[in-house]
Request: fold
Amino acid sequence: MTTALRVPEELSARVPAEQRGPGLDRDAVRLLVSRGTEVSHHAFVDLPGLLRAGDLLIVNTSPTLAAAVDGRLGHARVVVHFSTQGDDGRWAVELRDPDGAGTTRARTGGPAGTEVRLPEDVRLVLEEPLTARSARLWRARVSEPDVLGLLRRYGRPIRYSYTERDQPLSVYQTVFALPSADGSGSAEMPSAARPFTPRLVAELVSRGVQFAPVTLHTGVASAEAHEPPYPERFAVPEASARLINAARAGDGRVIAVGTTAVRAVESATGPDGVVRAAQGWTDLVVTPERGVRVVDGLLTGLHEPEASHLLMLEAITGQAAIGRGYDEALRRRYLWHEFGDVHLILPEEDPHTEHCSRNCW
Reply:
């Protein structure tokens, strides 16, 4: 990755694509395509022409939670970002300061024993940092056992200062999101899938592209943080494992929709390259040194230069290719973040791929 990369503030996507003009839908974003160091520019609705029959898209079905809740620390207002519930019932949480503009500023949590008052007189007590490397996320005990119910009643989607205004929770749900039996979900949207619409999914299916659902509940990923991802819950069902293995045995390419889908499926893949049904916690961090075992390509958003996700991208296609793609994204003024444009990383060019079946950008 080029170390000189800096993303200008004006390239942050401040509102969803469908709110940028009349008649627009979620799929009205741009699509940067990288094949090795070759880069091309498309509209996202060109995706069916860039894939082929037999290709398989791995999609994350995790719904997004209303994970930000107002609270009080003494007389001061704070915002609690609920991230992940552990097996012991405690939650990984991040405390943030209101910034007066509807978003928040980072703050250091702690010390241990700090108590935050939440709505309905619920008490949240910080017990210990989530990791020894950072005081940003803490394990906390909550007096209300039904935290997910509290989030439904008082929570709102997590948003950061590059966005223009609060949005309803529906804006943060992807077309693949499925309600879970216990109400669990992701603290932040698995945003690579956001541009998909039912119409586009139907067109892909009609062209012979298959979908393999997996689940990974993402935690918070604050823009200020540089930490690698911490353990997250995932599930790869048996039917999806069979679809992925069949695609690999044939001529299809296995393309993950989002870094969360990569983490889930690679966590269920053995050293032999076979995907097996699995569920539980994954602490896998995909790096160039570790590599990928099953994923051929990736559809993802554009990540900050310091984000650990870039190591995963480099594991799939190499550092030079990612550097070239990001240089082009800056030059052509693509938009960053969850409401922004997307990046399709494919294997090296082959003669079967149809280029830009509709309007190129």
